[in-house]
Predict the structure of Type I restriction enzyme HsdR N-terminal domain-containing protein.
Amino acid sequence: MDALNLPPFDYKVTKSGANYLIFDILRRKNIILTPEEWVRQHLVHYLINTLSYPKSLISIERGTNYNKLQKRTDLCVYNQLGQPHLLIECKAAHVPITQEVVKQVSVYNQTLQAPYVVISNGMDHFCWQVDFDTRQYKPLQGIPRFDSEQV
């Protein structure tokens, strides 16, 4: 797998037939190691180990509906009240972050209404704070740290 622009973490990779598997600490099982999963696992560990998000508030591949279509979010972090706080879209390292990717996560967030949106391919990371009243996305320098007082 590619070296990413995220802190390294202690991962467990095994092989099963033709597939490599990585242990997911949130789902508590081995997952097929794709380039996108590699980025997702790095982001999960970054959220927990660096930004202090509790594991219990992070959801992987949560289903959501948009215009009667079933969509899946890569990562959704909730606040203490169980409301979406941070929506993260992961792409493989070789996938550029384009306007189409930004549109994809924006569409997902119309339903979820998370105040923060992140897009990462493991090399480039973009984070915005969303103002739903003005429909404006304010770029941030990085993902906000977890604050136990956030609501």
Helices lie at 35-50, 99-112. The chain has one domain: 14-140. The first strand starts at residue 13 and ends at 16.
